[in-house]
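Re: Re: token formats

Sure, here are both.
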Amino acid sequence: MLKRLLGRDDEDKLEEGLAKTRRGFMDRLASVFGPVDITEETWGDLEAQLIQSDVGVGTSVDVVTALREEARYAGVRRADELPELLHEVMVDEVRGAARAAGSDDDGDRRDSAAGDGQPHIILVVGVNGSGKTTTIAKLARLYRDAGRSVLLVAADTFRAAAIDQLQIWGDRVGVPVVAGQQGGDPGAVVYDALTSTVGRDADVVIVDTAGRLHTQKNLMAELVKIRGVVDRVVPGSPHETLLVLDATTGQNGLSQAKAFTDAVNVSGVVLAKLDSSAKGGVAFSVTRELGLPIVYVGTGEAIDDLAPFDAGAYVDGVLGAAAS
């Protein structure tokens, strides 16, 4: 529903947010891309450094294999000539995985439009501490600034103060929040929100859910129930189910994320706290491992620090001077 185009401000935020990741990459790759001839050791070292940067084993192997082929085709024999080729290969890797996951080149889902006269419903899921509630506020701000009327639904009735936290963010962003009582039935909260006057009149409804681990079977079952309630009230919804991943957890977060994709048909990923990670390479393996596109990335703590994901801009931000 919201066309995710990267503007100049977004590019600047992405570049600034990736500063820590860029330094981490550069420190690791400096020892590989020296003014020396390319050897078998060069490829092995590059693969190891990519893995240490949370690019993932499978993705790292594919990147190095593709880079070797590109270097052979281009007649490149020196290691310090590889960065530009690496940039091209990594962009192709992210875009290729995104297309395979059912999105366009840069993560914009093609099948997420709501029906006529119905609100566009977004279900947001993730583990505790992933930055889920803050991400919801940032999404609300993006939609509000695009001229949409937004409603937030506080369906996290499990965590203490979760309702208050979302209401505070709603006040800051200037959008209403529908909430129930702590410990109440989250499905009932969602039903009441969607059948209320404000829910029916909203252009966009964003539903916050309780953070949970994949091992908490009762909470995962509750999440499935919430999705069922949304679908009954507005058939065919939620139109988007976004999984918020903490970029600082790296590869460790992917196994947990797979459980969410199985339970509630996640349609896209928001990579939060990217600015806090020195190993932001996890974005290269998220789409490949989860079969999902990255839709947005969190680039800071401010309310407007959420940028649409763009493969080229992301790789620019990660590799920086190494690709020039």
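Second one below.
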Amino acid sequence: MKYYLKTMFTAVLLFLLFTITGCAKKESTADNVDSPPANHIAGKPVDPSTAGSITGTIHFEGVVPQMKTINMIDVPNCAKLHATPVMAENVVPGDNSTLQNVVVYLQGDFSAYSFPQATGSVKVDQEGCIYAPHIVALMTGDALEVTNKDGVTHNINAMSQLHQGWNETQVQGGQPILRHFSKEEIPMTIKCNMHPWMRFYAAVINHPYFQVTGKDGQFTLRNIPPGTYTLTAWHETFGTKKQSITVQPKQERAASITFTDKDRP
């Protein structure tokens, strides 16, 4: 009788543990099937007759750090894909003392407005055993698409602080990996465990007022509802800079943000 009761108790305990674990798993994977945040589908569209804009430049002062060569010699399949050395992109200077790869965006309350989702995806390619582009930005609910053009197997490891992380192998010509994100996160670090130099950053922002600077270091944010906001710039090496900015109805604001060689966090 004691053996029977002990067996029954063990069976019930295992059943409960399985049920709890299963529920937890189901809950943890739910964020991988992200839906657009409420402010994308509620509220009103921004009135273009009163909307303003902000145009500016990200400057850099001081000694620009030397771009370092990526050493692929230990992975011949990657090294042979390049005729010239590949440079790391953690600091990429732009023209006329500007800075590339800076995510410029607004911080503020946009809960009264609705924003349409992008019709396409934000694409990142693995080509030559590097991620291109190195920095991307997308709105919550939009799609991030990662492809592999190399004759080498990669894996995509998202080290998110707010979303469920994912680590997925991708062979050459494999299906694109698509992910959506429901929460703002700046930045999300994504890397390849197989090739330690491979890394890119995704800035997930809950409105469309953002841009990643290119070679000219410039940015333009359009169709902004009148109000006071925090103009924010994030760079992977030099950290974050902020300034308050007010946009009046139909106003075209000019702004600039300067990073220096002393700004490392």
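The helical segments are 2-29, 38-41, 76-79. The two ends are 67 Å apart (CA to CA).
- S.
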